[in-house]
Amino acid sequence: MSPVEQGTLSFSRPQSAEKAECPLPRLYPSEALEQNTRMNANEAVVPSAVAATRMVFYEQPLNERMRNFLRLDFLYQQAVHHHTKADPWSTRAAVSAMLEILTITQRGDVRGEVLKELERQMTQLATFNSRPGVDAARLRVLMTKLHCMREDLASVGALFMQKLRDSEFLNAIKHRSTIPGGTCEFDLPNYTHWLNLPDEIRGADFARWLAVIRPLGDAVGELLWMTREQARSRPEIAPGGVFHLTLDRDLPAQMIRISLPVGTDTYPEISGSHYRCSIRFLYWQDPDNRPLQATEDVRFTLSTCT
Hints:
The chain has helices at 48-51, 64-83, 88-105, 110-126, 136-155, 162-165, 168-177, 189-195, 199-229, and strands spanning 12-13, 55-61, 232-238, 242-246, 255-261, 266-272, 276-283, 292-293, 298-305. By secondary structure, it is an alpha+beta fold.
């Protein structure tokens, strides 16, 4: 989403009134515990009455760590999804997503950042042990899951992806992927040969590569699930389609989320930093025409994830 700031009307609301401690995900008996299963379950067909209440979410990371986490989760979901499809074109898409994960993890210590965030979440959860009204069983489930993920990620070591980076086969595909159409059969005959092997052989190879990435991908997915579950949400109105948000400097936010009903004809463009964000709502027309600035008030739900 491109960083755009314009419009004649604006609205600003500081979040200093929200300094109360952010609730942690689903620790009270009134709510059912749900784990992060988006990558492992296909979305069921939703009846029309329920579909009318479904929402579309737009997320904006407010720091580099969250930006990397969202990109990794996006690519990991792609790799897992296409891995389940038994055809060469899906395998190509899965390999492409995996190679992009390798590129992202070469920049900085992503594994270290994930371990720090797991530790932070576990410390935060531990404070709920002695609080009345907390479902102890659900708290134990979350603590155990985070502990296992931390142990799995810590045990693989800092160079856990080096085996994939050293693969001549994967490196050839990665190198040719920078050229438009560079992975077609006359460029990479060995890749074409592998793609035409029986599905079970090709699938087993990719499953072995994906197993190397899985401790990181699963941990990032769970951390994002917890971050979203901790969000404080409130209904808002963007006068004239423009909304300015001032964030609390004493309670740094990691991400903001905007939700709109499925089927709405507007979408947001978000720009800003961890101190202030600007949101502009645009009317979608069609792929052949530029979107238009909304001129009417737009109602939406704003969630601040800390």
